[in-house]
Amino acid sequence: MRMTFRWYGEGNDSVSLDQIRQIPGVEGIVWSLHDIPAGEEWPMERIMQEKVWIEKHGFHIDVVESVNVHEDIKLGLPSRDRYIENYKRTIEKLGQAGVKVICYNFMPVFDWTRTDLFKEMEDGSTALFFEKALVDQMDPMELVRKINDNSTFTMPGWEPERLQHLTKLFEAYKNVSQEDLWDNLKYFLEQIVPVAEINGIKMAIHPDDPPWPIFGLPRIMTGKASIQRMLNLVDSPSNCLTMCTGSLGANPDNDLGDIIRTFADRIPFAHIRNVRVYENGDFIETSHRACDGSVDITDVVKAYHENGFTGYVRPDHGRHLWNEKCRPGYGLYDRALGIMYLWGVWDSLERERIRAEQQ
Ligand SMILES: [Mn+2]
Q1: 7: domain range?
Q2: pLDDT of residue 359
Q3: Domains in the chain: how many in total?
Q4: 35 Cα: distance to centroid of ligand 1 (angstroms)
């Protein structure tokens, strides 16, 4: 298990690289060039600048999250070929820079969706919250306004320039069924996976968050069957999954331990976090501790340990503690606590394993 931490870049994150260095066992920064619009080719100078800066602080740059996929690719428009070409060039450059994993997602229009970014919990901390009934009724434009009013930072996936054309996008997706979206994913993967292979990169799709269709938009990466189908679209060691326990865990039907055990060799990157799911379908992002939420984090870590997992891990989101001012879900404190919990479970499993070997 190789521990990493997501960081949004100098001047774009409340957390500093020097702070991250003091969290035990963090060896890599999960990074991106957040100002480059989806569909554009990443300039090599910018990639190298970021690499030099992160490495200077003692971290590796092996994992990029995300290289966003242009909507025309998801919509299957003729213009997609131009954007896919740009995507290939970006993969090549990231490979040259030494990147090993590219995380991306294939969710139409919206990246992750929540209704409240700072929902107060029993202990006075706040956390990301999803109210199912509200999303079922809400006009998506209203949600966008709420998200942008509530955050001092631009949210990844919610960039104003992408959302200006929201009405048009919704119109365009009216003609795209789930099966069409599968076809468009296949087309994309068939083009990019060979390029990833040559460049020593694993493409790791992030599951949909939450893992069901919202606002009438199709969503396809929702559970075990869809992961299997995605991996079969292009059967290559470079066509992989970012296993996110928080996203998939929002649907209690998903058996996360089983998914990890089944697809372990195709998971180069793991997001580990907990969610508490309520009977009405609402969910809130709790601490990592297993008993605080609905995800059995100890079993999740055990599933990775059993498979001798050597991939990258990050704590994904955390709560906002001790009045920290930070990007929603991306504070320092709770993610650091989460990492220590993950190490605690992992180290005790390691100790057992070594003991058993010695007997
Ligand atoms: Mn995730």
Answers
A1: 2-358
A2: 84
A3: 1
A4: 20
